[in-house]
Amino acid sequence: MTKNHKIVIEFENNRILPVVFGHHNDNIIYIEQELNTTINNRGGVLYISGHKDDVTKTRTVVDFLYNKAIENNDLKKADVETAIRFCLEQKNLPDDCNSSSIVTPKKTISSRSPKQIEYIDNMQKNTLSFGIGPAGTGKTYLAVAQGISMLSSGLVDKIIITRPVVEAGENLGFLPGDLKEKVDPYLRPIYDAFYDCMDGEIVNRKLENNDIEIAPLAYMRGRTLKNAFVILDEAQNTTTMQMKMFLTRLGQNTKMVITGDISQVDLAKNVDSGLVQAMNILSGIDDISISLFTSKDVVRHKLVGEIVKAYEHKEKKSSNKNDK
User: Fold this and answer.
1) Distance of alpha carbon 59 from its chain centroid, rounded?
2) Distance between CA 310 and CA 315 in Å, rounded?
3) At residue 2, does pLDDT exceed 70?
4) Cα 152–153–156 angle (5° rounding)?
5) Would you put residue 73 in left (φ > 0), alpha (ψ -120 to 50) or beta?
6) 136-161 as b/e, with b when 16 or more CB fall inside 10 Å?
7) How far is residue 77's CA from residue 312's CA, in Å, rounded to a whole number?
8) Whole-prediction pTM value?
9) How wide is the angle at C-alpha 114 spanned by C-alphas 112 and 116, nearest 5°?
10) CA geometry: angle at 255 spanning 250 and 261, to 5°?
11) What digits encode the pLDDT tens for the residues 42-73?
């Protein structure tokens, strides 16, 4: 591999370069660190040097950011991170980044990783979709956004979101307050996603009108869910019977998305996770998709990905010891 490969990039519109480079050249510095190249700017001309493959990736990232800045006159840190992520995974960044997005009343949400592209496509094409993986991969947020998009477009009449409430180790009946007050602490991340994608007054009105319904999993029993977008979150904490009960609620013109992290099961040790079983039983059935996220798909703070990776490594070592 050539170590001292160099290229020169000249730009037609130098006035947009401060947006591309970022405040105090923060974007350029970040690209250098992540792609192990050296970038020098002289009069609006970039000189990039390093290993040939790294230089090629750097050029792809810079070109993408330049075109995005021309189009939007703005760049966010997430844009830079996304471009680098796609290049490191050797994906065709411009095509892939524009191929999948979710339009909500507040914003258009673009894919930030190749796995998110797969997940968004799966939710839009399939009746039942699974998003499985660690925290920070966007699986719940994107599911909520897709539900909001379909509700706002009139494709469904309501959004239903449910979770098995086991985290506190308490029965809901013994917690103070009405149902909403009991369940809300467990569903705060979902509320945050709603308010991020839709005006707060509209969210509150739809909650009051029951166009958005948020309830514990036990309250799904006996119902047939029609004309709805239904999300089962934290599904790793369902039992086998709970998962079967939920899946058989599926009615006409309804989409279901099931999200969870099988490394974070809070059930008793002798109780099997319904999510793990469902993944094995339903894999390969037409109109059902399974998107598996890993630590490399984390789009939250970079450190979250490193934390998840460290835990995965520890669990792998423990598993290898037990196998001996």
Assistant:
1) 27
2) 9
3) no
4) 85
5) left
6) bbbbbbbbbbbbbbbbeeeebebbbb
7) 27
8) 0.77
9) 60
10) 95
11) 878 889 999 999 999 999 999 889 988 888 77
